[in-house]
Amino acid sequence: MGHVIRVMLVEDDEFWRQQLSSDLNKEEDIQVVKAAVTKQEALEAFQTMEIDVILMDINLTENQLDGLDATRDISMNKELNTKIIMLTSLTDKEIILKSFQNGAVNYITKSSFQDIVKAIREAYADVPSIHPDAAPVMRHEIQLMLLTPSERELYELREKGYNKTQMSQMLHKSVNTIKTQLRSIRNKLLK
After folding, report:
1. What SS3 state is found at 159?
2. CA–CA separation, 25 and 17 (whole Å)
3. Can you list the pairs that 141-145 forms with residues at least 24 positions away whose Cβ atoms lie under 8 Å?
4. Among candidate residues 51, 27, 52, 35, the one with its CA nearest the CA of residue 126
5. Rounded to two decimals, what is the model's pTM?
6. Which of 50, 101, 103 has the alpha carbon at shortest distance from 80?
7. Are 182 and 158 in contact (CB under 8 A)?
């Protein structure tokens, strides 16, 4: 039996805090050493305790996304190799991307509860794996990085439902130019 993975939960919902603590503590190699409710409490615990993996809820105080701030603050502390997994009920793209930008190693929605234990072990072992809850968004975003700024602008307009004629008027480009650019976008995004 190797090292026990020390986990801190950061979660303001009491039901989830208790549920997660009791489930995780059933695992032989995992111990919940702290269950924090606020960003402040999490940061203090992080500075004074030895913690391997943090399960971080994103909304700690009425939808302020302060779990993202906490993630950023903790990730900036490079000498402590603490891994952060976002655990949340939110699934919107911006928040998933922001979580990784702020230093999280994984992102799991609460409906994928059963995958949490595996994610904790992988994070601890430095095995990079992005949970299926977040992977499609990440892949898509990486593909979008291939677009030029003007292609990206077209792409966003198309997503909003504008047609070629409308786009040509809005961007002061000929419909042919728009067609060519859309073709280029399609080739880059492989769809």
Report:
1. helix
2. 12
3. 141/93, 141/97, 143/188, 143/189, 143/190, 144/189
4. 52
5. 0.77
6. 50
7. yes
Q: Would the pLDDT of 72 be above 60?
A: yes
Helix and strand numbers (H, E) in the chain are 9, 5
Cα 189 from Cα 191, distance rounded (Å): 6
List, in order, residues 6 or more apart from 82 with CB less than 8 Å away: 46, 51, 52, 53, 54, 74
C-alpha 19/C-alpha 180 separation (Å) is 54
User: Residue 92 is encoded by which pair of tokens?
Assistant: 């919107």
Q: Which of 10-14, 100-104, 110-114, 145-149 has the lowest mean pLDDT?
A: 110-114
Q: How do residues 128-171 score in pLDDT, each as one tens digit? A: 788 888 888 888 888 888 999 999 999 999 999 999 999 999 99
User: What's the CA gap between 110 and 13, in Å, rounded?
Assistant: 12
d(CA 54, CA 32): 10
How far is residue 152 CA from its own chain's centroid?
A: 22
What span, in angstroms and rounded, lies between the C-alpha atoms of 179 and 176?
5
- Token couple for 88: 């949340």
How far CA 35 is from CA of 17, 80, 128, in Å, comes to 7, 19, 25
Sign of CA dihedral 12, 16, 18, 21: negative
